[in-house]
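Collaborator request, handled under Task 6.
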Amino acid sequence: MKENKEHIIAKWIEGSVTDTELNTQFDADMSDDLKLIQDATADLAIPDLDSDALFQKIQADITSKSKNKSKVEANVSYLKYWVSGIAAILIGVLAYTAIIDQSIMINNDTLTYSMHTLPDGSSVHLNANSRIEYDKDFSTNRLLTLDGEAFFEVQKGEIFTVHTENGDITVLGTSFNVFSRSNNLTVACKTGKVKVVSDRENILGPGDKVVHIKNILTEKSVITADLIASWREGESIFKSSPLSEVIQALTSQYGYQLNGMPIDMSQRFTGSFIHNDIDKALRMVFLPMGISYKLDTQNKIITIQ
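Structure tokens returned to the collaborator:
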């Protein structure tokens, strides 16, 4: 009997099928795409997984719901094989890579950050609920699109450009942080030089930061190096930042929606919030600002009162 192609992929991921054997089952483009996915996900931090316990839970769920014993046994046999071959790599991981036409998208839907190595050797730390997308020829055309927040460590070489809906950031070889959500764009340079183009152009050196709120504000300031991309340590730190940036960072970090009474988003906030406790994080931001709120954890809604 000809083996199911899903089984072949599972065995290849597990290591019991070689690249040569894989190529005999799929056309060249499909094989290349599978290998690109494997390479792009190689640096993901995978949580520990008890595959036997997971299988037992699946088996119990199927047994309790099915009236056809023979069908259950067939399904369980298939699921056990699938879980043992692929679950340790993919189950529980929401930071994933997808290949769409000629572009590669890395999407981090988790509540923590993920780290990825780009084809040119540069690295990107992708914050919660953020994504990047770039073409397959990235090594010769270093252009990517960012939606959310990321810290980049760029290898020296040709021009490296980060495109966001609020502006473009261009460098040659440096490290910098980009926050782009809604109408807010904040860029902080840690090493090297960065050019930021939005409504106007700004050149940043180490310790420089520019905040741009579309059609409202563009300002440049100085920031200490240890505050840049502090979110990688599980806490977002702000110094005289617009409240709009802080709230967007908080709601994106936890995947919540903000409703209710309007507040003055131009207020300045100095402080921080943690990434592992939404209730405490809200108190850290809203109480010093004198903002009353109601938290609905079931529907993930913050209502300003």
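The cover message to the collaborator said: "The helical segments are 5-14, 19-25, 28-40, 51-65, 69-90, 243-254, 278-286. The chain is about 30% helix and 35% strand. Please let us know whether this matches your experimental observations."
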